[in-house]
């Protein structure tokens, strides 16, 4: 597996280009406080894993960063060089399901997403070539004419990833990309994320319930339960008492904090 982590990128300080700063973020729905005083920074070229139990607010946080939910506090994007702009965000939603018999092909779905062209008309050669170029970013060109409903979990994630990378965003957000993907598909997807992160200096934020691979691919882990309980290098977070408490793990050898 080729996933490599950047050295010394996991600190919370902004000693290198800072992509996204979330400060004192709060989200409420009706009487329910979903997120409260959430603070963290994302950096270019880093993979950050967001973990937390069911209902912790991970998807809500993503939707808020995507601008879909009203919130208090600040979400600020700053480019290298200090310019504040609105970030371009690529988003891969949580396990969208497609009917197995659905006739829509990968090409159809892609065209509906990136171009203003009716899918019932023959696809112009240039448009097909553009889709193939996009799919090539995740080595998925052979999937172009496959029906969406016939894709495996890992193949579907790769197609959705290719769609999220067109145009290439500043920040890539993936909501539980590893769920419904077998071990082989998981490896391929993580390698792919590592590749695009390096190629485009992307900041990647993904949520996961799979802690086994965190140390291998994540530069930083954020443990969320309404607010950030712990953040830092994977080992530090996974061995913390906050992690144990949230996931109701009993003390055993190896838990040091
Ligand atoms: N549209 C909504 N209206 C009211 N409450 C909501 C809404 N969406 C989410 N919630 C609540 O917000 C809380 C956080 O939900 P969210 O989906 O963000 O959690 P999550 O960490 O992504 O969970 P999971 O790991 O199960 O996907 C939950 O209590 C949920 O019921």
UniProtKB/TrEMBL annotation:
Signal peptide: none annotated. InterPro entries: AAA+_ATPase, ABC_transporter-like_ATP-bd, ABC_transporter-like_CS, Metal_Ion_Import_ABC, P-loop_NTPase. GO terms for molecular function: ATP binding; ATP hydrolysis activity. Keywords: ATP-binding, Nucleotide-binding, Transport. The keyword Nucleotide-binding applies. PROSITE patterns: ABC_TRANSPORTER_1, ABC_TRANSPORTER_2. It holds the Pfam family ABC_tran. Residues 20-251 form the ABC transporter domain. PANTHER family: METAL TRANSPORT SYSTEM ATP-BINDING PROTEIN TM_0124-RELATED. This is ABC transporter. It comes from Intestinimonas butyriciproducens.
């Amino acid at each position: 597996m080729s996933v490599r982590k950047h050295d010394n990128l996991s600190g919370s300080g902004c000693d290198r280009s800072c992509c996204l700063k979330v400060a004192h973020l709060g989200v409420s729905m009706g009487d329910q406080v979903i997120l409260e005083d959430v603070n963290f920074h994302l950096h270019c070229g880093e993979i950050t894993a967001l973990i937390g139990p069911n209902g912790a607010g991970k998807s809500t946080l993503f939707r808020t960063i995507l601008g879909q939910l009203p919130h208090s506090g600040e979400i600020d994007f700053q480019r290298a060089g200090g310019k504040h702009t609105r970030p371009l965000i690529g988003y891969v939603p949580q396990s969208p399901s497609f009917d197995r018999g659905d006739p829509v092909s990968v090409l159809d779905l892609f065209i509906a997403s990136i171009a203003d062209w009716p899918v019932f008309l023959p696809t112009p050669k240039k448009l097909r070539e553009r889709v193939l170029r996009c799919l090539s970013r995740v080595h998925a060109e052979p999937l172009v004419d496959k029906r969406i409903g016939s894709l495996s979990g890992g193949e579907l994630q790769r197609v959705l990833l290719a769609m999220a990378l067109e145009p290439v965003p500043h920040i890539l957000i993936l909501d539980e990309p590893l769920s419904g993907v077998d071990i082989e598909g998981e490896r391929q997807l993580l390698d792919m994320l590592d590749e695009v992160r390096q190629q485009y200096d992307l900041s990647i934020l993904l949520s996961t319930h799979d802690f086994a691979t965190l140390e291998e691919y994540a530069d930083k882990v954020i443990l969320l339960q309404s607010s950030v309980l712990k953040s830092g290098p994977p080992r530090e977070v996974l061995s913390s008492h906050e992690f144990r408490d949230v996931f109701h793990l009993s003390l055993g050898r190896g838990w040091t904090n």
